Amino acid sequence: MIDPAPGRDAPRLHVTASTLVRHFGEWQERAARAPVYVLHHGRPRLILVGVELAATLGDGGRSDQPAAALLDPILDALDLPLLLLDGEGLIARANTAARARFGDRVTASAGVMALSQRDGGTLAAAVRRVLDGAARERVTVAVDRAPGRALGVTVEPLPEGCLLRFEDETAAMETQAAVAARDSIIAAVETTGLAALARISLRGFLVAPRPALAELLETPLPLLAATRFLDLVATTDRPLVCQSLERASGGETDEVVKAALLTNDGEELDVALSFWPIRVNGRVDEVVAAVVRRSA
Questions:
Q1: Tens digit of each residue's pLDDT (9 = 90 or more) over 62-75
Q2: Quick one: residue 6, left, alpha or beta (phi over 0 = left, psi -120 to 50 = alpha)?
């Protein structure tokens, strides 16, 4: 990417908040030359701009804050604990997630040794190497307040200091185990040939349809992509199935619905349907449908 010169007609620089945090040093240099629009859910929400450039934008853009201070709203909007360290390796600022995780251990001008009794020295050594010119480093530290859990810490070099990004490695392993268990359960159910699972978007379309559903309906898998689930339901059964699907989309669980689905050749397949909401961060994101063949 070529950095544009600042000005009204220059193309905008865009970056997501997560990318900005991972590569703050690079984007800090760009912000010193041109405003950087920080995206949240794909839409510009904040602007990162260097102090000297802000002063050229007129009295309305004049700011005496250092560039790092302008990053505070971005850091606080992220769920990952983040620390900005100064050139001496001392904490300059901590985002909300870091303060919630470590409490008074991340006060301004504190060192990183206190973050982990067992691995504080290892973390401090990694910080020192990065401050001395090493590239990005990653270490694992024990969590004092939660025995048995571990945090992965990425130390990113900055022009004046470094950025520490903390990720719960134990949670990541637990998530992987849960996903593996879920996939095994789905595979075991679908191997029977009597049932299939389908993900349905809140707009009613199939999401990444699985081969088991295609086999059950005797329909080529590519034809199911971006298909409305209700289009697979026999006309007379659509009102009842639609009501059950809408209730699941609203977060309710429902009883089993008996209906007929249409195969690729137009034949009707008697099935039992059960819809269940998939919640992400407390909100329904999708609906999963269990499709079980009924005996004639």
A1: 445 555 556 677 77
A2: beta
